[in-house]
Amino acid sequence: MTAEHLEKGRLGETVAARYLAERGWKILEKNVSFRGGELDIVAMDGAELVVVEVRTRSEGWMQRGEESVGPRKLGRLVRAGRVYTDSRGWDGPWRVDIVAVTLRPGDEPLVERFEDVTAGAYRT
Asked: Between vectors from CA 67 to CA 73 and to CA 78, what angle results, nearest 5°?
């Protein structure tokens, strides 16, 4: 990955974390890495733990951020979420959300959140 690409990703994660915090979420951890995965943001939305995948794009990019998360990535996020919840002793409800950040030159980033993108399908 290029330095510019990595910087864009970091900016998107910062924007996403601020967006969630402004809505009353408690950010627990960012960029959690462990064997078998990485989680961009782990936060609390009320009493529910949320694994947040952040996708950052520049305006005009041919694929929207949320469209770039396919079934394989969703499966990896759920597995990583299980490892995370097990390692932290979390036995409450949890879900996977996507936050898509679109960077717009000369304007504020556009932030869209897609809640419970697995709709519980992987959490049985």
From this structure: 25
* CATH number of the domain to which 90 belongs: 3.40.1350.10
Q: Is 76 exposed, middle or buried (0-12, 13-18, 19+ CB in 10 A)?
A: middle
**pLDDT exceeds 90 at position 14:** yes
Number of domains in the chain: 1
Segment 48-76, tens digit of pLDDT: 999 999 988 877 655 565 655 667 878 88
Q: What is the pTM of this model?
A: 0.86
CA distances, 92 to each of 30, 45, 58, 107 (Å): 20, 12, 36, 39
Which domain covers residue 91, as residue numbers?
3-114
